[in-house]
Amino acid sequence: MKVIAKIIIEKLKFPNNEKPVLKNINFEIKQGDFIVITGGVASGKSALLHVITGAIPHYHNAELTGTVIIMGQDIKDMPLNRMSDYMGYMMQEPDNQIISLNVYENVAFGLENQELPYEQINQVVKNTLEFVGLRGYEERQTSSLSGGQAQRVVLAGVLALKVPILILDQPTAELDPQGRQEIYKRLGELNNTQNLTIIMVMDRVEEVLNYANRVLMLKDGEISKDYSPREYYWAQIKYQKELFRDSRHYTLDSNKPRESIAKISNVSFLYNNQLPGCEDINLEVYKGDFLSVVGLNGSGKSTLAKLLIGLLKPAMGEIRLFDQIIAKRNLSKILARVGFLFQNPDHQIFASTVEEEVGFSLKLRGERNDNLNQKVDQCLQFVGLADYKEMHPQRLSRGQRQLLALASILAGDPEFIITDEPTSGLDENQGYMIMEKLYDLSNNGKTILLITHDLAMAKDYSNRLVALYKHRIRLDIETKDIERHREELKAIGLDFPNTVTFKEGYDDTGTSEV
Amino acid sequence: MTQALPKFDPRTKLVWYSLMIYFALLSQTAAQLGITLLVCIMSSLILSGSFKHSKAMVIILLLLGLQILIIQLLFCREGTLVYQWGIFKIYSDALPLAITGILKATLIFYASLQFFTSASAQDFTLMLIKFKIPYRFAMLVGLGVRFLPLMKEEYQSIIDSQRTRGLKMDSVWDDLKAIIPTFLPFLYRAVRRSTEIALAMELRGYGRTKNRTFSSEIVLKYYDVVLIASMFLVISLSIITRLLPLI
């Protein structure tokens, strides 16, 4: 296969950073490659994509030593806005890439910049929207799109450019399993039928292994391994066996009366635009539960969590937390016993050092300084950020900021922890590590409510599973009974497709069947 | 009904808006202002078929009107004295002046609302392009319309996030104290967002040439030309009648 890119990075350094972000990188990309790049937090994955796209050195201020040749041209000599002739780049957050008010305009944006005639733009936009499964969405306002639809609109905008290389940074981070599978399938199709070269940073590599032909593992800014998908799979199995427990056992006695932490009775909620958030919800959370709330995007999971901590007021029904009805007068008292980890850590980080950020809620509670420092140290140790305590939080990677947000929540020693997609933006191993931490907390008597799309993770860690579908609870089961309810879960779009198809693809000798 | 009406060019709407502002500033009597306001309201009713978008405006105008009335009653010294209570005096011209002021404010406010809600961001952008504004600046209107609601939503999420960490926001004093923990994450997010938007745009070829294609365009129709010409005629006649006595 023809080599279309050659990446040689001796060193990449950002100003005020002593340590290089990338070093000793040397690899070639061939036409038709489907390369997955993975690695731990702050391993340099996104920086590498920025170098390949030319964002470094043209857009971000960084010192790059090396050569990056894309289709015979050195990126140093190419203006950034000419890169769209060679590659399309899709970043993680779709909201930051949707530029126009309606779907049509957004997909047409790149084509308009190329000064194509209107008729040609029209044809390309229609074909691309059809390809990503959004035919008929042309006039739809981009503000009304769901996360999955927005992700597909961004993909359409990039695909419309008809470039030979597609670069994707965690393109499915905000999607449910169904949405993720759709995107992978379409990308695989493009890779196979049009020989499109795909370079993708992924946190859940296993989901895309069946489509990829190479997995690059980054560690401390270097390529530590260049795997074939099969080698990667077996290395991961081995690693996870060594690192994590084989099985988790909950010893909850179903005959023993259990203390209720939260009780939601006949709760419904309508948003201002009259769209339902939750309908007729009845749910009781018991002390010591590790309860997973699963469902597709827009099924009402986050709304339920917000109702539970009084951020939203139910239109109907009653919510009790620690045996008290949530009301304005007792909300702060109740919230002092609850920790809520939001999906986006950037919605809470404001302090100028990591330790100040973790100590914020303790300060609000008037904690004494010596006690505060001790608790901050313990929490940072727990999430593995002890070495960064003096650092400005905005200099941490997205995954590290997520860990920082978790440490800030734990500092308050909450009895009930609600986490909304706590592993989003983390790599696979880091995600499992967070889940292990939550599992340990659960074993230490904390009650955990986990909101996730990831049924496999919910199955592995929780003792109870609640499935939401179209804003209603469709299933409330013990996790050990999950296999018996597989058909019901499938019917509402929840399954373990990624794990299953992947494992089916490779037998235990490591030989690919596909 | 609405669909049957012609879709006016944004330039026609701009001239109409200018005409309304011109009359609001130059009309001196309540009758003149009242008629102009009525014409403006009627045009909205004919074009959109409802007053739905005016609902929020009524409350603001009531507050503004009350303020104008109080100021005129307290400080107007024109006309004859009609009431006195200590140093507090009310003169006969206070009420007519207050009414004129309220009508002027209402007309300006209503015409602005009519103009800014009737044209889409895309129409604004295309209009600015027609006025030879470089597209890099003209497209900022659309970007603003797209991202301001997102930023508002994000600020609310930040407030929610900090409240769950124990930050009190029950009084004005609490709100003031909460500015740093709520505004700083908003600022960091805004910087991060704008950096990513700009990068996403550049990587899709934005700014590579002096011109770009737009997938829609605005063209003055015959009725736009007639309307614009008529409105200019009205403005010209008004200026001439005002200037003639001075010559």
TrEMBL record, chain A:
Pfam families: ABC_tran (PF00005). Keywords: ATP-binding, Cell membrane, Hydrolase, Membrane, Nucleotide-binding, Translocase, Transport. Residues 7-245, 262-495 form the ABC transporter domain. Its EC number is 3.6.3.-. It is found in: Cell membrane. One of its GO terms (molecular function) is ATPase-coupled transmembrane transporter activity. It is a peripheral membrane protein. It comes from the Bacteria. It is an enzyme of class 3 (hydrolase). GO terms for cellular component: ATP-binding cassette (ABC) transporter complex. SMART domains: AAA. PANTHER family: ABC TRANSPORTER ATP-BINDING PROTEIN BC_2655-RELATED, HEAVY METAL TRANSPORTER. Belongs to the ABC transporter superfamily. NCBIfam families: PRK13648.1. This is Putative HMP/thiamine import ATP-binding protein YkoD. The gene is ykoD_3.
From TrEMBL, chain B:
It holds the Pfam family CbiQ. GO terms for cellular component: plasma membrane. Keywords: Membrane, Transmembrane, Transmembrane helix. It is found in: Membrane. The chain crosses the membrane at residues 20-47, 56-75, 95-113, 133-151, 222-244. It comes from the Bacteria. It is a multi-pass membrane protein. InterPro entries: ABC/ECF_trnsptr_transmembrane. Its main location: membrane. The keyword tRNA processing does not apply. PANTHER family: PROTEIN ABCI12, CHLOROPLASTIC (PTHR33514). This is Energy-coupling factor transporter transmembrane protein EcfT. The gene is ecfT_3.
